[in-house]
Each structure stands twice: as C-alpha cells, then as structure tokens.
Amino acid sequence: MDRQSLMMIIIAGMVILMGIFMAVKGKTSMVRERFSSGVSPENERKFMMTVGGGVSIIGLDMLALGIFAWKSPLKQSQILLVLAVGVLLFLAVIMYGQKKFRK
User: Fold this and answer.
1) What are the boundaries of each domain within the chain?
2) Is the dihedral of CA 74, 87, 24, 14 positive or negative?
3) Could you tell me the CA-to-CA distances from 52 to 17, 49, 75, 78 in Å, in that order?
4) Could you read off the pLDDT of 64-75 as tens digits, one per residue?
5) What do you get for the CA distance between the two ends of the chain, in Å?
6) d(CA 26, CA 34)
7) 46 partner at 20 to 30 Å CA-CA among 20, 26, 38, 85?
8) How far is CA 17 from CA 13, 86, 93, in A?
9) CA distances in angstroms from 98 to 12, 27, 49, 70, listed in the order given
10) Per the UniProt record, which residue ranges are transmembrane (predicted)?
C-alpha cells in the first residue's frame, strides 16, 4: 500500500466519523442559523441528520477511491466516475432533506 492511498483511507474514515457525529450529536442551532426561514423547529434534528448523512456519503466516496487505488491503479475516467457517483448521491440526500424537512 502506498502512502497516498493510506492517507486517503485515513482521511475518508475521519470524514465518515465527522458525518456520523454531525448526524447524532450535531447542534440544531447550526441549521437554525443557516436555514432559519425554511426549517421548522420539529424538523431541525431530522434535517441535521440528513446533512450528516450527506457528509458521510462524501467520506464513503473517498474511502472507495482509496481502496480502489490501493488494489490497482485507477484510470482518470474511473476516478471521475467514482467522484461523480459520490457527488450525485450527496446532492440526492441533501435535496431529499430539503424537500422533506423544509416548509
């Protein structure tokens, strides 16, 4: 395993843990400050969980890239495909949260 793949896997693990922490223990006041006009008080916790889930998806995308690069070298098109899937999943989760939990 080369150092670059190892660092990518370590950083991905930290991002996943931050997303889980954000979903479980994140302060809802952060949502209130950013989206004060759109999130009702009873849905603040749910919306925060959605944001934390989106951050975890980005971490999973980074983890997949690190593991794939560790196993065998990736072509540029394969890297872009994995990144595109991660970004699309992130956007889908955030858009779902906005549609479901905002007024």
Assistant:
1) 3-101
2) positive
3) 10, 5, 30, 26
4) 999 988 888 889
5) 48
6) 14
7) 85
8) 6, 17, 17
9) 25, 18, 12, 36
10) 6-26, 47-70, 76-97
Q: What span, in angstroms and rounded, lies between the C-alpha atoms of 9 and 65? A: 8
Task: Provide the residue type at 72 as one letter.
Answer: S
Report which residue type is found at 9.
Answer: I
| Longest CA–CA separation in the chain, Å | 48
Give the tokens for residue 32: 């209130």
Neighbours of 19 (CB within 10 A): 21
Q: Token match 């991905």: residue?
A: 12
pLDDT tens for each residue of 18-55? 999 988 887 777 666 666 566 677 777 888 888 899 99
